[in-house]
Amino acid sequence: MSTVQANPQVRTVASSQSEMTEVILPNDANTLGNLLGGRLMHFIDLTGAIAAYRHSRTHVVTAAMDHIDFIQPVHVGDLLILKSSVNRAFNSSLEVGVKVWVEDPQTGTHLHVASAYLVFVAVDEHGRRQKLPQVQPETPDETRRYNDALLRRQHRESEAARRKQERRDTGLTRA
Ligand SMILES: CC(C)(COP(=O)(O)OP(=O)(O)OC[C@H]1O[C@@H](n2cnc3c(N)ncnc32)[C@H](O)[C@@H]1OP(=O)(O)O)[C@@H](O)C(=O)NCCC(=O)NCCS
Q: DSSP characters for 103-137?
């Protein structure tokens, strides 16, 4: 891809933190009236993209979404609360963490539904990768997430290399 362009800025986590609340409607649900997993992933992608957009102030595309466990069912009429923050920026990519809760609208109780890490890549209007501002962690939690994001990046890279080799070995891609 094209040469990465210079952008020396540093941004705090707080400056791009985002939150979205959705009421779950029948169109979001399966035949049991539970929120569809794919719809939940759509909301996670959107909430993650908003934080990535605020951090980068340019276009972002989703490069990867890590493993997700669906911990609690969410029913029609429930409120879904999603919060996202940028854990760390690298060159043109950044990792966002998204955490999701369901709120019972009658009682106000919150239960954890799912968490996910996503990687977005910053691009300009022609799809050319853009150099990102770095993240400045300010709290112990932000520092822990910042450090862990590097380990997850290394793990993703080694897994991607392993899958690529597997595709070559099975003849699914050209050598
Ligand atoms: C994501 C995409 C831009 C990466 O392009 P690419 O040519 O593979 O780019 P590179 O290999 O040069 O990698 C660019 C960055 O993306 C990261 N990246 C690429 N693929 C990745 C993956 N599968 N998981 C995590 N990070 C990834 C690289 O680590 C690199 O990060 P860095 O710049 O911070 O070091 C390209 O694969 C793409 O356009 N994919 C489709 C995106 C899309 O349509 N998403 C859904 C709709 S928004």
A: E-TTT--EEEEEEEEEEEEEE-TTS-B-PPPEEE-
- How much is the pLDDT for 174? 64
Report the atom number in ligand 1 closest to the C-alpha of 60: 48
Nearest to 95 by CA among 121, 113, 115, 69: 121
Q: Ligand 1: residues within 6 Å at CB?
A: 1, 61-64, 90-93, 119, 121, 129, 156, 160
Residue nearest to atom 12 of ligand 1 (CA): 1
Structural domains in the chain, sorted by start: 10-137 (3.10.129.10)
Task: Give 20-36 pLDDT, tens digit per residue.
Answer: 999 999 999 999 999 99
157 C-alpha vs ligand 1 centroid, how far in Å?
11
Mean pLDDT of 84-100: 98
pLDDT of residue 175: 56
Quick one: average pLDDT of 132-139?
97
| Two tokens, residue 96 | 């966002």
Query: What is the Rg, in whole angstroms, of the alpha carbon atoms belonging to the chain?
Result: 18
123 alpha carbon to ligand 1 midpoint, in Å?
10
